Amino acid sequence: MNKKILIFEDDNATAEFSGILAQQLGFEVAFRTKTDNVLNDVLEEAPDLVVMDNWIPGEGGLSSIDMLKNTASTAHIPIIFYSANTDFENLAKDSKADIFLSKPFDIEDFEDALNRLIPDSSK
């Protein structure tokens, strides 16, 4: 069974691009365009990894990551946090995400992050 990635991204082009990269690596992909129900969305989709945009409607990336990492049933799920924020390095330091990527991100960096957080090659 394929590993699943849940991408929280409100920019259609970035969501589609990220999803295509993940699918080419053999992952199943689900998408959300807002974080109003982030905890329910994650519990419903049961992903093996979450990709979270910072500037996303709803709770926003930073608050959503904090909620997921502080909830026992979702704390184990690795999270890639990405943003085009000019001060993203400092913002990322305050987050509990596992990997941080600045947008626009390099394709190889994104693929490497997926493979490091879900190392099972049989995806």
From TrEMBL:
Alphabetical UniProt keywords: Phosphoprotein
One protein family per Pfam: Response_reg
Keyword Repeat among record annotations: no
InterPro entries xrefs: Bact_response_regulator (IPR050595), CheY-like_superfamily (IPR011006), Sig_transdc_resp-reg_receiver (IPR001789)
The keyword Phosphoprotein appears for this protein: yes
Domain spans labelled Response regulatory: 4-118
Residues with 4-aspartylphosphate modification: D53
Highest taxon of source: Bacteria
Identification of the protein by name: PleD family two-component system response regulator
